[in-house]
Amino acid sequence: MDNQRLVSGTRFGDLHPDTIGAQPEQKERENVEELQFKAEKGSAPHESGRDARDAVGQSRRFAAARRTRANAVNRFAGEALHFVRPLVARWMRPTPGAATWALSEPSVLAEFLRCLGVMLESAGRACAEKELLARDGIGPALEGLRHTEPLVRRCSLFLLSRVVLLGCEELVLEEPKILTHLEAYPFRESDETCRRMAAGLVACLSQHLLS
Protein backbone atom coordinates (compact mmCIF):
# COMPACT_ATOMS: atom_id res chain seq x y z
CA MET A 1 0.00 0.00 0.00
CA ASP A 2 2.83 2.36 0.85
CA ASN A 3 4.53 1.57 -2.43
CA GLN A 4 1.30 2.17 -4.36
CA ARG A 5 0.81 5.59 -2.76
CA LEU A 6 4.44 6.45 -3.47
CA VAL A 7 4.11 5.42 -7.11
CA SER A 8 0.84 7.29 -7.61
CA GLY A 9 2.26 10.49 -6.11
CA THR A 10 5.57 10.40 -7.98
CA ARG A 11 6.39 11.22 -11.58
CA PHE A 12 7.27 8.32 -13.82
CA GLY A 13 10.67 9.84 -14.65
CA ASP A 14 11.61 10.03 -10.94
CA LEU A 15 11.19 6.31 -10.35
CA HIS A 16 14.10 3.91 -10.31
CA PRO A 17 13.69 0.13 -10.77
CA ASP A 18 16.13 -0.65 -7.93
CA THR A 19 14.06 1.20 -5.32
CA ILE A 20 10.44 0.73 -6.53
CA GLY A 21 9.34 -2.82 -7.03
CA ALA A 22 5.67 -2.27 -7.63
CA GLN A 23 6.02 -0.86 -11.18
CA PRO A 24 5.39 -3.61 -13.78
CA GLU A 25 7.86 -3.88 -16.65
CA GLN A 26 5.04 -4.13 -19.19
CA LYS A 27 3.55 -0.85 -17.95
CA GLU A 28 6.95 0.81 -18.23
CA ARG A 29 7.33 -0.30 -21.84
CA GLU A 30 3.83 0.94 -22.69
CA ASN A 31 4.49 4.31 -21.12
CA VAL A 32 7.80 4.69 -22.90
CA GLU A 33 6.31 3.69 -26.26
CA GLU A 34 3.41 6.11 -25.75
CA LEU A 35 5.78 8.99 -24.99
CA GLN A 36 7.93 8.17 -28.00
CA PHE A 37 4.87 8.00 -30.26
CA LYS A 38 3.63 11.41 -29.08
CA ALA A 39 7.06 12.94 -29.54
CA GLU A 40 7.47 11.59 -33.06
CA LYS A 41 3.91 11.99 -34.37
CA GLY A 42 2.52 14.82 -32.34
CA SER A 43 4.42 18.07 -31.81
CA ALA A 44 7.49 17.49 -33.95
CA PRO A 45 5.99 18.27 -37.39
CA HIS A 46 4.16 21.27 -36.00
CA GLU A 47 7.25 22.67 -34.30
CA SER A 48 9.51 22.08 -37.30
CA GLY A 49 7.01 23.74 -39.61
CA ARG A 50 6.66 26.74 -37.32
CA ASP A 51 10.45 27.06 -37.03
CA ALA A 52 10.76 26.97 -40.81
CA ARG A 53 8.10 29.66 -41.21
CA ASP A 54 9.79 31.81 -38.56
CA ALA A 55 13.15 31.43 -40.29
CA VAL A 56 11.68 32.43 -43.64
CA GLY A 57 9.93 35.41 -42.09
CA GLN A 58 13.12 36.58 -40.38
CA SER A 59 15.19 36.21 -43.54
CA ARG A 60 12.63 38.24 -45.48
CA ARG A 61 12.64 40.99 -42.87
CA PHE A 62 16.44 41.14 -42.82
CA ALA A 63 16.60 41.18 -46.60
CA ALA A 64 14.09 44.02 -46.71
CA ALA A 65 16.09 45.97 -44.14
CA ARG A 66 19.29 45.57 -46.14
CA ARG A 67 17.72 46.57 -49.44
CA THR A 68 19.03 49.99 -50.54
CA ARG A 69 18.86 51.86 -53.78
CA ALA A 70 21.97 51.60 -55.92
CA ASN A 71 21.70 55.22 -57.02
CA ALA A 72 21.20 56.66 -53.51
CA VAL A 73 22.83 60.10 -53.15
CA ASN A 74 24.88 61.01 -50.08
CA ARG A 75 23.23 64.30 -49.24
CA PHE A 76 25.25 64.70 -46.06
CA ALA A 77 28.52 65.02 -48.00
CA GLY A 78 27.67 68.54 -49.12
CA GLU A 79 26.54 69.60 -45.64
CA ALA A 80 29.14 67.91 -43.44
CA LEU A 81 31.39 70.95 -43.15
CA HIS A 82 28.51 73.03 -41.79
CA PHE A 83 28.17 70.54 -38.95
CA VAL A 84 31.85 69.90 -38.21
CA ARG A 85 33.19 73.47 -38.29
CA PRO A 86 30.86 74.94 -35.59
CA LEU A 87 31.39 71.90 -33.39
CA VAL A 88 35.18 72.15 -33.56
CA ALA A 89 35.07 75.95 -33.08
CA ARG A 90 33.02 75.51 -29.92
CA TRP A 91 35.53 72.94 -28.69
CA MET A 92 38.44 75.32 -29.33
CA ARG A 93 36.75 78.33 -27.68
CA PRO A 94 34.16 77.10 -25.18
CA THR A 95 32.01 79.67 -23.49
CA PRO A 96 32.39 80.02 -19.72
CA GLY A 97 30.07 77.86 -17.71
CA ALA A 98 28.50 74.62 -18.91
CA ALA A 99 30.56 74.35 -22.11
CA THR A 100 33.86 74.70 -20.22
CA TRP A 101 32.71 72.18 -17.63
CA ALA A 102 31.57 69.72 -20.32
CA LEU A 103 35.00 69.63 -21.95
CA SER A 104 36.53 68.67 -18.61
CA GLU A 105 34.34 65.57 -18.47
CA PRO A 106 36.04 62.56 -20.14
CA SER A 107 32.73 60.99 -21.22
CA VAL A 108 31.60 64.19 -22.98
CA LEU A 109 34.99 64.67 -24.65
CA ALA A 110 34.98 61.05 -25.81
CA GLU A 111 31.52 61.46 -27.36
CA PHE A 112 32.67 64.67 -29.05
CA LEU A 113 35.57 62.85 -30.70
CA ARG A 114 33.41 59.90 -31.67
CA CYS A 115 30.79 62.24 -33.15
CA LEU A 116 33.44 63.89 -35.33
CA GLY A 117 34.60 60.50 -36.53
CA VAL A 118 31.07 59.40 -37.41
CA MET A 119 30.44 62.60 -39.37
CA LEU A 120 33.68 62.20 -41.31
CA GLU A 121 32.75 58.64 -42.15
CA SER A 122 29.24 59.69 -43.18
CA ALA A 123 30.65 62.35 -45.52
CA GLY A 124 32.66 59.70 -47.36
CA ARG A 125 35.52 59.77 -49.82
CA ALA A 126 33.37 61.42 -52.48
CA CYS A 127 32.97 64.55 -50.36
CA ALA A 128 34.50 67.54 -52.15
CA GLU A 129 35.54 69.08 -48.82
CA LYS A 130 36.95 65.94 -47.24
CA GLU A 131 40.42 67.46 -46.78
CA LEU A 132 38.96 70.39 -44.84
CA LEU A 133 36.96 67.98 -42.73
CA ALA A 134 40.05 65.90 -42.03
CA ARG A 135 42.08 68.96 -41.04
CA ASP A 136 39.40 69.99 -38.58
CA GLY A 137 39.63 66.57 -36.97
CA ILE A 138 43.42 66.47 -36.57
CA GLY A 139 43.60 68.97 -33.70
CA PRO A 140 40.97 67.34 -31.47
CA ALA A 141 42.42 63.90 -32.21
CA LEU A 142 45.87 65.01 -31.09
CA GLU A 143 44.50 66.41 -27.85
CA GLY A 144 42.62 63.17 -27.24
CA LEU A 145 45.77 61.07 -27.63
CA ARG A 146 47.27 62.92 -24.65
CA HIS A 147 44.30 62.35 -22.36
CA THR A 148 44.61 60.25 -19.21
CA GLU A 149 41.32 58.39 -19.76
CA PRO A 150 41.48 55.30 -22.03
CA LEU A 151 37.98 55.98 -23.38
CA VAL A 152 39.06 59.38 -24.71
CA ARG A 153 42.17 57.91 -26.31
CA ARG A 154 40.10 55.19 -27.97
CA CYS A 155 37.72 57.75 -29.48
CA SER A 156 40.70 59.83 -30.60
CA LEU A 157 42.17 56.83 -32.41
CA PHE A 158 38.76 56.17 -33.94
CA LEU A 159 38.68 59.75 -35.26
CA LEU A 160 42.14 59.31 -36.79
CA SER A 161 41.02 56.09 -38.43
CA ARG A 162 38.13 57.98 -40.07
CA VAL A 163 40.62 60.55 -41.39
CA VAL A 164 42.53 57.68 -42.96
CA LEU A 165 39.28 56.20 -44.26
CA LEU A 166 38.62 59.45 -46.13
CA GLY A 167 41.91 58.96 -47.96
CA CYS A 168 43.67 61.79 -46.11
CA GLU A 169 46.60 59.77 -44.78
CA GLU A 170 49.03 62.55 -45.72
CA LEU A 171 47.47 64.87 -43.14
CA VAL A 172 48.25 62.36 -40.41
CA LEU A 173 51.78 61.76 -41.71
CA GLU A 174 52.41 65.51 -41.77
CA GLU A 175 51.75 65.76 -38.02
CA PRO A 176 54.91 64.51 -36.23
CA LYS A 177 53.29 64.66 -32.78
CA ILE A 178 50.63 62.18 -33.81
CA LEU A 179 53.24 59.84 -35.28
CA THR A 180 55.26 60.05 -32.08
CA HIS A 181 52.25 59.04 -30.02
CA LEU A 182 51.35 56.18 -32.34
CA GLU A 183 54.89 54.81 -32.34
CA ALA A 184 55.06 54.92 -28.53
CA TYR A 185 51.69 53.24 -27.94
CA PRO A 186 52.97 49.63 -28.06
CA PHE A 187 55.41 50.40 -25.23
CA ARG A 188 53.67 53.03 -23.07
CA GLU A 189 49.94 52.45 -23.53
CA SER A 190 48.29 50.51 -20.70
CA ASP A 191 44.98 49.93 -22.49
CA GLU A 192 45.01 46.89 -24.76
CA THR A 193 42.25 48.21 -27.02
CA CYS A 194 44.22 51.41 -27.62
CA ARG A 195 47.31 49.38 -28.46
CA ARG A 196 45.42 47.33 -31.04
CA MET A 197 43.81 50.41 -32.60
CA ALA A 198 47.16 52.21 -32.78
CA ALA A 199 48.78 49.16 -34.37
CA GLY A 200 46.05 49.08 -37.03
CA LEU A 201 46.56 52.77 -37.78
CA VAL A 202 50.32 52.35 -38.08
CA ALA A 203 49.80 49.41 -40.44
CA CYS A 204 47.48 51.48 -42.68
CA LEU A 205 49.88 54.41 -42.75
CA SER A 206 52.82 52.11 -43.52
CA GLN A 207 50.91 50.54 -46.38
CA HIS A 208 50.15 54.01 -47.73
CA LEU A 209 53.84 54.93 -47.64
CA LEU A 210 54.82 51.75 -49.48
CA SER A 211 52.16 52.13 -52.18
From TrEMBL:
Classification via InterPro entries: ARM-type_fold, TEL2_Regulation
Q: Where is the composition biased (Basic and acidic residues)?
A: 25-54
Give the start-end ranges of region Disordered.
Answer: 1-61
Protein name as annotated: Telomere_reg-2 domain-containing protein
Naturally occurring in which organism (per UniProt): Durusdinium trenchii
